[in-house]
Amino acid sequence: MLVAIGKGIELEVDVMRFNGEVHDHILRTGLRNLLMDAHASATAKADPDNYIRRSQELAEKKLANLYAGVVRAQTIGGPKAATDPVGMVILRLARKAAMRDKAADIAAASKGERLALINQLAAEYAKAHDAQLRPRAEKIVALEEGEAEPSAKKAEPIPVKKKKAA
Predict the structure, then answer these.
(1) Does one domain contain both 6 and 66?
(2) Residues 54 and 95 in one domain
(3) 64 and 7 together in one domain
(4) Which of residues 23 and 111 earns the better pLDDT score?
(5) What confidence score (pLDDT) does residue 77 get?
(6) Which has the higher per-residue pLDDT, 127 or 157?
(7) Domain for residue 159, yes or no?
(8) Cα–Cα–Cα angle for 147, 136, 99, rounded to 5 degrees
């Protein structure tokens, strides 16, 4: 299994070499991190009366998604994120446009609601502008995957005159 660990570093890991104790530790740590991340948005500051109940609901929802085979499900802010490369680029472009166009609305939202609002606005923008965004997203994906070359000419080095020795 190829594991990306950051800074552009990837390690090939043979999980079959782990003994039972190490395997269980890795599984316990990974599940704990996933479930903690899932409920982190429910805070006492955002909802003083119900944050523990909300945390439990979010963690249970994440666990249910994992049981169902869904690795990444958006728990707040609207529809699930796209999983195909073109859809992901469309959403990325829509997020930039929505953040540019609705900067005042986003700034006015509370810190706890901003991400959900940005996700909602991006999803709405992507749906409304899919026809304009799709061709651009397809080109971006093709370029990122090395399937196409940029249409612009590549710059050639400018010759530099050498100074004569004195």
Answers:
(1) yes
(2) no
(3) yes
(4) 23
(5) 45
(6) 127
(7) no
(8) 130
Asked whether residue 134 carries a pLDDT value surpassing 50, the answer given is yes
For 82-93, the pLDDT digits (tens) are 567 888 888 899
Position 17 confidence tier, pLDDT thresholds 50, 70, 90: very high
50 and 1 assigned to the same domain: yes
- Residue 97 lies in domain: 78-149
Is residue 137 a contact partner of residue 86, using CB atoms and an 8 Å limit?
yes
**Domain shared by 83 and 69, yes or no:** no
Contact 10, 3 (CB under 8 A): yes
**H or E element: which one contains 140?**
helix 130-144
> How far from the centroid of its chain's Cα atoms is residue 154's Cα?
31
Per residue, the 3-state secondary structure of 34-69, as one string, reads HHHHHHCCCCCCCCCCCHHHHHHHHHHHHHHHHHCC
76-107 burial, b at 16+ Cβ within 10 Å, e below that, comes to ebeeeebeeebbebbbbbbbebbeeebeeebe
pLDDT more than 70, % of the chain = 80
